[in-house]
Specification:
alpha+beta, conserved putative lor/sdh protein from methanococcus maripaludis s2 fold, OB fold (Dihydrolipoamide Acetyltransferase, E2P), 4 domains, elongated
């Protein structure tokens, strides 16, 4: 009886162990992951026209700008008559300073000059009379020369005092600040009651009848920015796009940055362009050529080379090719390297290797590119940077 129970128990344990072993082995996947098709997203390459461009970022400046403030005197600000946005005429009073001390000093110098003038005229007449008595022997030559010297010395003192009077007059005139030209008030830096010194700015005046766009371009683009070259200017602040032409170009490069300075003049009689803002200048190069457009997310870029995965008969094939250009999320390559309609991997490519089997899911095709689509290169572009 005991032996039979032991045999039954051993049999039950063996059966349970066999069941657990079978259950564990049934859950093991004996198919290698590398042999399974990897799910990826693909898009079809599209035909497009490529026209190389250069894009330069610069600043919009007024044609004339002036910081108005005292140049000779330090004083408290009495009045400021304008605020930003005010339109002013040439010679219009913008601000005044409290110059009672300067007025008093100028008045004192003026009175001193009058006294010296009267004294000098008296010495001049006396010297003339003494000189007239020299021929009769009534005075000595030394006396005549002394009187003449005194008159000349007083004349020099008078001239020095008049020069001081001119200086004090400039200080007095500096107390009334006027617009140097017709324009608009851009900034107001100090209010009445503030103390200013020579060189401080109270208000600034600008003339926007012509706006000047300034930019610095790489030295190897010297021929691309010749004066008269047609370009397109985009103003970031307003979103305007204007046809323009390069007005002037520096004859040499900056010694420290090796860049060439260029300027574009924009007539703005209605004064609608804000200055001190950023603008983008696009210059077209060459003629449009046929190209194939790919999503920028489908490639890894390094300098002018790109790495992509193309899908052929359910297999991913790695390819390196030369890039023509890029713009707004699009990459442009030669049609001989990637024909239109080729399926390019977008999502999942970072886990792929050349020759892997894939299960491709076609994404919705992007909007067809305009036949006149252009691409650009931002200058300067750092070389050798992977994206």
């Amino acid at each position: 009886m005991i032996a039979r129970n032991i045999a039954v128990g051993v049999a039950a344990l063996l059966a349970l162990g066999g069941f657990l072993l079978w259950r564990a082995e049934s859950r093991v996947d004996h198919v290698a992951l590398s042999s399974q098709a990897q799910p990826v997203s693909v898009v079809e390459a599209q035909s497009a026209l490529y026209r190389p461009m250069r894009t330069y970022v610069g600043r919009l400046d007024p044609w004339i700008a002036a910081n108005v403030g005292p140049q000779f005197i330090a004083a408290y600000v009495d009045t400021v008559l304008v605020r930003p946005g005010a339109v002013v005429k040439a010679g219009q009073v913008l601000a005044t300073l409290d110059c009672r001390n300067a007025n008093a000093s100028s008045r004192a110098v003026e009175m001193q000059a009058r006294a010296l003038d009267a004294e000098q005229r008296q010495l001049s007449r006396e010297s003339g009379r003494v000189s007239s008595m020299l021929d009769g022997g009534f005075v000595s030559a030394n006396e005549a020369e002394a009187k003449s010297a005194q008159s000349a010395a007083k004349q020099a003192e008078l001239l020095a005092e008049k020069a001081r009077l001119v200086g004090t007059s400039l200080e007095v005139n500096d107390c009334i600040l006027r617009a140097p030209f017709a324009g608009e008030v851009a900034t107001r830096s100090i209010d009445p009651g503030g103390f200013v010194r020579p060189g401080n700015t109270i208000v600034s005046v600008i003339d926007r009848s012509t706006v000047r766009m300034s930019a610095d371009v790489p030295e190897n683009d010297f021929d691309n920015v010749a004066p008269g070259k047609a370009a397109t200017l985009r103003i970031f602040a307003t979103g305007q796009e204007l046809a323009a032409a390069i007005t002037r170009r520096a004859p040499g490069a900056d010694a420290s940055t090796r860049t060439i300075h260029i300027e574009v003049d924009l007539p703005d009689p209605k004064k609608q362009i804000p200055v001190g803002t950023t603008a983008e200048l696009q210059v077209e190069l060459g003629k449009p050529v046929s190209a194939t457009a790919l999503p920028l997310s489908a490639a890894t870029l390094r300098d002018t080379q790109a790495s992509i995965f193309r899908v052929e008969a359910g297999v991913a094939r790695a390819q390196r090719l030369r890039v023509l250009g890029e713009q707004e999320g699009k990459l442009y390559v030669a049609p001989a390297d990637v024909p239109a309609g080729t399926r390019i991997v977008t999502e999942g490519r970072t886990l792929l290797q050349d020759g892997d089997r894939v299960e491709a899911r076609l994404e919705s095709a992007p909007a067809a590119l305009d036949a006149g689509a252009r691409t650009s290169e931002i200058a300067p572009t750092p070389a050798g940077e992977a994206r």
